[in-house]
Specification:
Blueprint: H1 3-17, E1 23-31, E2 34-39, E3 43-47, E4 62-68, E5 71-77, H2 78-81, E6 94-100, E7 103-109, E8 111-119, E9 135-140, E10 146-150, H3 152-157
Parallel strand pairs: 2-10, 5-7
Antiparallel strand pairs: 1-2, 1-8, 3-6, 4-5, 6-7, 9-10
Length: 159
């Protein structure tokens, strides 16, 4: 059996059994002790040590704007956006620049953890009693650890 035929047979078997092989790559970051994943499809870059220009009359979670190579990008502190207390920024604090639809936005996070390939069929919905408008799902990650998934579309809708 040729390699192409073998590959097609495996593919056909997966389709017959209804197995979803869709995996997606996620950037996992921490914020207030939570591990949160964001699809790398949205991530443009990660920046550190960038001067933020403060804006008047905006919600407290909108920290201001930055000029990134001539593009003005609004910056949101994800901690504050999720109703958590503010902290002093450290050397591990960084900004994840996201492109969501036609909107570019920066999100301040406590630290970057890792990049992971995650089987989308393993992502569970958030229980209704714990519903958080910015979280679209969750997955168990090792013993006593959970990764929550950021709903980027909701993030820009409510920003």
């Amino acid at each position: 059996m040729s390699a192409d035929t073998q590959e097609n047979t495996i593919y056909d078997e997966v389709l017959e059994k209804g197995i979803d092989t869709a995996t997606e790559r996620f950037l996992v970051f921490s914020s207030d002790g939570l591990n949160i994943g964001v699809s790398t499809n949205y991530v443009i870059e990660i920046i550190t040590n960038h001067a933020i220009t403060l804006l008047p009359l905006v919600p407290d979670y909108v920290k201001g704007i930055i000029n990134l190579r001539g593009q003005i990008i609004p910056i949101i502190d994800i901690r504050l956006r999720m109703g958590k207390p503010s902290i002093e920024y450290t050397s591990s604090t960084c900004i994840i620049v996201l492109n969501i639809g036609n909107t570019t936005i920066g999100v301040i996070v406590d630290a970057i953890q890792q990049v992971m390939d995650i089987d989308q069929s393993q992502i569970a919905p958030v229980p209704v009693e714990n519903q958080q408008e910015l979280i679209s799902g969750m997955i168990s990650s090792g013993a006593r650890s959970v990764i929550l998934f950021l709903d980027c579309e909701q993030l820009i809708r409510t920003y």
